[in-house]
Amino acid sequence: MPEALEASELLSRQIRGWLVEITHKKKTAHLASALSCVDILVAAYCGGTLKVEPSGANSPERDRIILSKGHAVGALYAILAYRGFFDEKLLDTWNEDGGKLPEHPSPGCVPGLELATGSLGHGLPCGLGMALGMRIKKLDSKVLVVLSDGECNEGSVWEAAMMAPAQKATNLAVIIDYNKWQATGRSDEVLSLNPLADKWKAFGWHTQEVDGHNLTELQNAIEDAYRQKDKPTAIIAHTVKGKGVSFMEDDNNWHYRAPTADEVSLALLELGLA
Amino acid sequence: MRNAFAHAITALAREDPRISLLSGDIGNRMFDKFKTAYPDRFFNCGVAESNMTGVAAGMALCGLRPFTYTITPFVTTRCLEQIRVDVCYHNAPVTIVAVGAGYSYATLGSTHHACEDIALLRALPGMTVICPGDAVEVEAAVGAILRQDNPVYLRLGKKGEPVIHETTPNFEIGKGITIQDGSDICLLNTGNTLPIAIETGKILERRGISVKVVSLHTVKPLDQDLLKEAFNSYPLVATVEEHSLIGGLSGAIAEWLADNGPTNAHFCRIGTPDKFFHLTGSQSYLRKQTGLTPKSIADLLENRLLKI
């Protein structure tokens, strides 16, 4: 395995370990949703296609990554800290009174945080606005928006999905964290989500389907996305909710549950971090 | 007022490359000059106002100064969540431009009426609310908006309203403009009813009652100096607006009074009732139905003054 890929896989496991521990400590929700998108964020932040560096966190020319599924922000806080956007010690203050890391991110709460999210269906319209803004300013910057599958219930997602191809926003890509669950049920049963890739294709997007836990597939898909000449790209990332911890995988109770101390130990063992 | 907006935004876009204009599939021909001159900065966002508002916020977060534009309910209540989260929470300098204040689109029915928008937009943290009284104030307001960096709600009438100002007044956000001075009643108007307020003043003058008429174009933030002076110097202060008595200019001033009273002045509020219209009618018909005419307002104020 190439060295960089090996480092990224280790990083994914470390982020998962931190998420399990902090969720236990702070008794916060949405652990399984965060575990689901860890590899997507690692591929986005470490894959090399997108220019996202701590030194350029305020540069007008930077690329922008938006985690539209704001309830999974633990994964984003962790990767921003590991990438050096802020001191890792700050992670311990998650959800503390008067702290900078809310359960859904506030505007600019930490360097590298591009958009306050938490209410679903906002990331794609705002991301499209950034992509078009870059075009107005004649900058080459790219925008990547990470959506959840449940989030695709929101009409605003599809409003943006119709406008982006009309504007030929080739500097815009979305990754849908398609873990087949939303808060209270299967995402294809609550509303008719399938066939998801066909929906995006029908809306005029260049569409790819990848294993959302395979960093190589994810990185290749992100690289390919911005090579498109006339269409924005939608990457359907097939994922497992609660990925990385066997007893959490595909069990929707972990949308809200926090692990016990014993469960944390078991999880860390499974992640090879004990 | 809408033509004044189109004219102002087109003229200002020449000097200010940050300006972008987003329309919700409306403004047929009105923005042709803008589109021709700045095709890369005009976006017809379709009938999709939630997305339009989010797109505008995204542009603003990249350093641009977007204006979103369509009929009032669709650019305000339809996408209130996006205005709240994408625009106000981020303090993104987006200007929400609404055409059709109050009953401006009367015959199109209550779906197109706008008598709750000030109340809703005013409640959002960080939002400035401006309701110009005529086309001249519209143009001045657009200039003033670009000299500050916060979210703004700009509430326009429709078209063909009487032009009140012969020359461009000194327009400052949060500062009312005195149209005429007087000593018995202080009549505060916001928005497209300014000609009604002025005519009311004339009727009362003929009845021997001296009326100060103010275009209080900014509902948020309120002109506190003006309010202090009004409630300290006049026996009767009145508000006129084509907006519900719940939460509009009069509501804002009632809140201010609760915090800054007591006062010797009496306060009279004139606005639209807490109801939808199910029958058809023109703007002048609806104004008559709701007492928003110079004669009925003058009668009301004269009676109130006599009782003091």
Distance linking N and C termini of chain A: 23 Å
- SS-derived structural category of chain A: alpha/beta
Uncertain regions spanning at least 5 consecutive residues of chain A:
none
**Helix and strand element order of chain B:** HEHEHEHHEHEHEEEHEEHEHEHH
Strand arrangement in the largest pleated sheet of chain A: 1-2-3-7-6
Report the span from N to C terminus of chain B. Answer: 38 Å
Number of domains of chain B: 2
Alpha plus pi helix count of chain A: 9
Total of helices of chain B: 12
* Named CATH architecture of the largest domain in chain B: 3-Layer(aba) Sandwich
What name does the CATH topology of chain A carry?
Rossmann fold
Radius of gyration of chain A: 17 Å
Tell how many strands the DSSP assignment of chain A holds: 7
Mean pLDDT of chain B: 97
- Low-confidence segments of chain B, given as residue ranges, are none
Helix/strand-derived category of chain B reads: alpha/beta
Short description:
The complex is a heterodimer of chains A (274) and B (308). Chain A is built from nine helices and seven strands; from the N terminus they run ααβααβαβββααβαβα.
Structural description of this entry:
The complex is a heterodimer of chains A (274) and B (308). The mean pLDDT of chain A is 97. With 274 residues, chain A is an alpha/beta fold. Chain A is built from 9 helices and 7 strands. In chain A, helix 2 crosses helix 8 (215-225). In chain A, strand 4 and strand 5 (185-186) form a beta hairpin. In chain A, 39% of the residues lie in helices and 12% in strands. In chain A, 53% of the residues are buried. By secondary structure, chain B is an alpha/beta fold. Helix content of chain B is 39%, strand content 20%. Chain B is built from 12 helices and 12 strands. Chain B has helices spanning 2-15, 32-37, 49-60, 72-75, 80-89, 117-122, 135-146, 194-206, 224-233, 249-260, 283-289, 294-307, and strands at residues 19-23, 42-44, 65-71, 95-99, 128-130, 152-156, 177-180, 185-189, 211-215, 218-220, 236-244, 266-272. The longest helix of chain B has 14 residues, at 2-15. Chain B is globular and about 60 Å long. The interface between A and B is medium-sized, with 31 and 30 residues.
